[in-house]
Amino acid sequence: MRRPRAPSGSRPTGTGAPDGERVPVLRVPRGRRTTPMDRVLYLALTAMIAFGMTATVAVNLLGDGYDYRETIAVWFRSVFWFSPRSDLMIGAPLVYQVHAIGGFLFLALWPFTRLVHVWSAPLAYLWRPYVVYRARRGPLPAAPPTPVAVREATARLGR
Question: At 143, is the pLDDT very low, low, confident or very high (cuts 50, 70, 90)?
């Protein structure tokens, strides 16, 4: 019952992930570059997604199938509660093990990349007062002088 539904979540994730990886690379302003650590993180993310897709397609759809909910899900929960049960991961297919290691590698690399800014969301923005725009009354203020005009005026004064 579970196997036919497995691709329904992994297909959009696996096919949409490359688009999501391109966004931060393309949004880098001109003159700035993607750091080497960002490239390492993108590589780790791509590998993790590839192993996840391989686990879904090769093992569950084309192969005999593997019920990861009985072993890997329980193992992950035990890791999350700082009481890891390695015996649950020993019998898992290698592609699942590598996928899990890729996830930990991704989390380990995260703080050393630009992706760390995901956690610095400007939450105060939600509660800031509104900016009120009012119509001007009277003439517009004069434009500030250009640097060339300031130099010429200074030269005329003899300074």
Answer: confident
Report the alpha-carbon distance of residue 84 to residue 82 in Å, rounded.
Answer: 6
Please answer whether residues 40 and 109 qualify as being in contact, where contact means their C-beta atoms are separated by less than 8 angstroms.
Answer: yes
> pTM of this prediction?
0.62
Q: How far, rounded to the nearest angstrom, does the alpha carbon of residue 51 sit from its chain's CA centroid?
A: 18
Q: Does residue 58 contact residue 96 with C-beta atoms inside 8 Å?
A: no
Tokens found for residue 110: 């995260």
Main-chain phi, psi angles of 28, to 5 degrees:
-65, 125
Cα 74 to chain centroid distance, Å, stands at 26
Burial (CB < 10 A; 0-12, 13-18, 19+), residue 47, is middle
Per DSSP (E only), the strands in 9-64 are none
